[in-house]
Amino acid sequence: MPPRKVLLTGALGMLGRRVRERLAPDWDVVATAHSAAEGVRALDVGDEAAVRECVRGLRPGVVVNCAGYTAVDRAESEPDLAWRINATAPGTLAEACAEVGALVVHVSSDFVFDGTKRTPYVETDATNPLSSYARSKEAGERFVRERASRHVIVRTQWLYGPDGKHFPGTIRRLAREGKPLRVVDDQTGVPTYAPDVAAAIGRILETGLNGTIHVANRGQATWCEFARAVLARAGEGATVTPITTAEFPTPARRPAYSVLRNAVLEATIGDTMRPWEEALAAFLPSTSKPAS
């Protein structure tokens, strides 16, 4: 049997690279990104005509959408662009997938919640986005549900990994530069390792699970706790001073509590996501690139 064909968008991003790596042995992965690179085709997901033409031409069995506008604060001044990439584009992909009978897997965010809950969010909890970025992500989910005949929405959070800019790399760089480390201690979530999410996406595809699915490492932490754990693992002696969100104002509002519980995985194929501390321990020894 020939390999099953997957169209992957956002293949040069932090998660997209890991998804491509995870699926490549068993799937015929057609990797795309906004700009072409070796082994990666150019596809602007914001170009509706190009997206439809690509899906019709390839006729994949699965489309995995890892493309996204991720500049949370900049989205407050670029709401139209955030909407085009995070809302309109997933809707177009969903329509194109329905046309060729493909499954669409769309990556979303904990930002769809408002953070007023004090126990972990499950997939059936009501959404209430607080910012321009969050509203665009919530709309992307809705458009996928409404327009795709078959879909998976993967919600994840606080991603870091071997590629691109991420919180652990920034904290380590600031520590080495001797910069003061004042980190918010009243926002709680789950630090989540991108390769673990990619592995979960592979399992979801292999088992045929569908619907909205939370995929995050287990446990919870504040950003301050995460920063201290990063420095402890890295052997850095810098001091982290806890501060409040009010002391570090940003253009976009963040949910104060956005811990995701992988309830669907628990009830179906099993939740194999490890505790976030174990994932961090697996990540840091392999970090050889300069922190960004």
Main sheet overview: 7 strands, parallel
CATH domain fold name: Rossmann fold
Give the percentage of residues in beta strands.
Answer: 15-25%
Structural class, from helix and strand content?
alpha/beta
Ends apart, CA distance between termini: 43 Å
Structurally, the number of domains stands at: 1
Looking at how many chains there are and whether they match, the oligomeric state comes to single chain
- Helical segment count: 9
Please describe the topology of this protein:
Layout: E1 4-9, H1 14-23, E2 27-33, E3 41-42, H2 48-58, E4 62-65, H3 79-100, E5 103-109, H4 132-147, E6 151-156, E7 159-160, H5 167-176, E8 181-184, E9 188-189, E10 192-193, H6 194-207, E11 211-214, E12 221-222, H7 223-234, E13 240-243, H8 263-267, H9 276-283
Parallel strand pairs: 1-2, 1-4, 2-3, 4-5, 5-6, 6-11, 7-10, 8-13
Antiparallel strand pairs: 9-12
Helix pairs in contact: 1-6, 2-3, 3-4, 5-7
In short:
The chain is an alpha/beta fold and 292 residues long.
Q: What would the keywords be for this entry?
A:
globular, 292 residues, two-stranded parallel ribbon, 37% helix, alpha/beta, disordered C terminus, 9 helices, Rossmann fold
Structural commentary:
With 292 residues, the protein is α/β, with parallel strands linked by helices. The protein has one domain (4-165, 191-218, 258-276): NAD(P)-binding Rossmann-like Domain (Rossmann fold), CATH 3.40.50. It is built from nine helices and 13 strands. Strands 3-2-1-4-5-6-11 form a seven-stranded parallel sheet, sandwiched between helices. Strands 7-10 form a two-stranded parallel ribbon. Strands 8-13 form a two-stranded parallel ribbon. Helix 1 (14-23) links the parallel strand 1 and strand 2. The longest helix has 22 residues, at 79-100. It is globular and about 55 Å long. The N and C termini lie far apart (43 Å). Mean pLDDT is 93; it is low at 286-292.
